[in-house]
TrEMBL record:
UniProt keyword list: Heme, Iron, Metal-binding, Monooxygenase, Oxidoreductase, Plasmid
Species of the source: Skermanella cutis
Family, as annotated: Belongs to the cytochrome P450 family.
Organism domain of life: Bacteria
SUPFAM superfamilies assigned: Cytochrome P450
Keyword Aminoacyl-tRNA synthetase: no
Official protein name in the record: Cytochrome P450
Length: 464
């Protein structure tokens, strides 16, 4: 593969109009194709046209980049020129001005305040909480397994991920709240995703039936979160959970605390993003493991060798294969299938001048399938992430949690949770798909299965 420098001298640059592009609609550009099937469209665009492809959104310029040099340029070397795009603003209807959606000084202030909460030594204290949530789920599974009734593993992982994030944030299990939250999350996801490819300036504001359902679902979530915040504020912050840490957080530069609006936005971001990405990642992992029994067998052997529930960082360090399984799963099914940036000023990418206001798509879904960097990229192979096979792989071809200043603050937490869940479940149950038909991925806000994944729960004592 010919390597190109991300930024070329201006006198070598060609116009944005010269960038290869797939067939697109007049006026509407690539938006109809992205709305119809973004994953296939982006993947085929790279295959047919290379590592920089024009994907105009209506009359607005946009490009997809899938070379590590280009990704490094946008996210690292010239990151100050690339801010949050207007597409990300669609998430503000749901998340407000949390870390995912904020920009500029507001984002920098919130990041400074939250960074200490996500230090690894602090997160290690959550391992027993994760273990307790999984143990509670396995008790419920005893009844389900005896009945022999297949379960929707996505729903099961959704309930588990919700329990983990609720215990971590608020110090208690979701309990009766879980049903309301799980009912509301798909409504929020599907409505917000529907806004991404529209050019209507009133999108998200018109009182359509879907909009009213969205507002009602969001109000339900807000009521739950604000109740926790107000009760804890009245009681005074302690040192028990992540909400206490948020209440105690101070900007190291100004000494300011978060007001209730900022607390709400950060808590709902952690609550929804932490729940949804973990639930989907675990769901896809069980799907992949049953389709690759040799990997499942190795995971089960490692879980058995541990001999007890993981409760410390040292335990997780012994679960190397579980971590590789998690890493490979989020390679094939990255939690966020694409993210984007907006060029605040003109720049040069691969000798093409891109104008100010260009949306730059960086799709992990495509990068993780790039044949120049991943051998047989569609194959599930956790050993890709051994030290020997990872050596020499470019950093910016693997972006399950983003990169650069805006790397997902919860990336370590997500992998920890996956290790704990995979190990505990694999030590007790073997999960079997009820159908051999492949399940396709759906590009909403996160990468979700297009249909429920139904599985049977086989206790390990009976597993063959």
């Amino acid at each position: 593969m010919v390597r190109h420098s991300a930024a070329q001298a201006p006198n070598e640059a060609r116009s944005y109009r010269d960038i290869p592009r797939p067939p697109v609609w007049p006026v509407l550009g690539a938006a109809p194709a992205l709305r119809r099937d973004a994953l296939s469209f982006m993947l085929e665009a790279r295959r047919a046209h290379g590592d920089i492809v024009a994907m105009p959104l209506g009359l607005r310029p946009a490009v997809q980049i899938t070379h590590p040099d280009l990704v490094r340029h946008v996210l690292i070397e010239n990151s100050t020129n690339y801010g949050r795009s207007p597409m990300t603003d669609r998430l503000k209807f749901m998340l407000g001005e949390g870390l995912v959606t904020a920009d500029g000084e507001r984002w920098a202030r919130q990041r400074r305040m939250m960074q200490p909460i996500f230090q690894r030594d602090k997160l290690d204290g959550l391992i027993p909480i994760m273990t307790a949530a999984v143990e509670d789920m396995l008790v419920r599974w005893n009844v389900l397994a005896r009945s022999g009734t297949p379960v929707d593993i996505g729903a099961q992982m959704g309930q588990l991920a919700l329990d983990v994030i609720t215990r971590a944030l608020f110090g208690k299990s979701g309990g009766p709240l879980a049903e309301d939250v799980i009912r509301c999350i798909p409504i929020l996801q599907e409505y917000t995703a529907s806004l991404f490819w529209t050019f209507n300036p009133l999108a998200g504001k018109l009182p359509t039936p879907n909009h009213r359902r969205f507002r009602a679902a969001l109000a339900t979530i807000d009521t739950i979160i604000l109740r926790f915040i107000r009760e804890r504020t009245a009681a005074g912050a302690g040192d028990a959970d992540m909400l206490d840490a948020l209440l105690r957080a101070r900007d190291p530069e100004t000494g300011a605390a978060m007001d209730e609006k900022a607390l709400r936005d950060e808590v709902i971001t952690l609550f929804l993003a932490g729940h949804e990405t973990s639930a989907n990642a675990l769901t896809w992992t069980w799907y992949l493991l049953d389709r690759h029994p040799e990997a499942r067998d190795r995971l089960e052997a490692e879980a058995a060798a541990l001999g007890s529930a993981p409760t410390t960082a040292g335990d997780l360090n012994r679960l190397r294969y579980a971590r590789q399984v998690a890493q490979e799963s989020v390679r094939i099914y990255p939690p966020v299938w694409s993210f984007n940036r907006l060029a605040l000023d003109a720049d040069t990418l691969n000798s093409y001048t891109i104008p100010q206001g260009t949306t730059v798509f960086i799709p992990p879904w495509v990068l993780h399938r790039h044949p120049s960097w991943w051998e047989d990229p569609e194959r599930f192979d956790p050993d890709r992430f051994t030290s020997a096979r990872s050596a020499g792989r470019p950093r910016y071809v693997y972006l399950p949690f983003g990169a650069g200043p805006r790397t997902c603050i919860g990336s370590h937490l997500a992998l920890m949770e996956m290790q704990v869940v995979l190990t505990l479940v694999a030590s007790r149950y073997r999960l079997r798909l009820t159908s051999d038909h492949p399940v396709s991925a759906q590009a909403l806000i996160t990468t979700r299965p297009s249909n429920p994944i139904m599985m049977r729960l086989e206790p390990q004592a009976k597993a063959s």
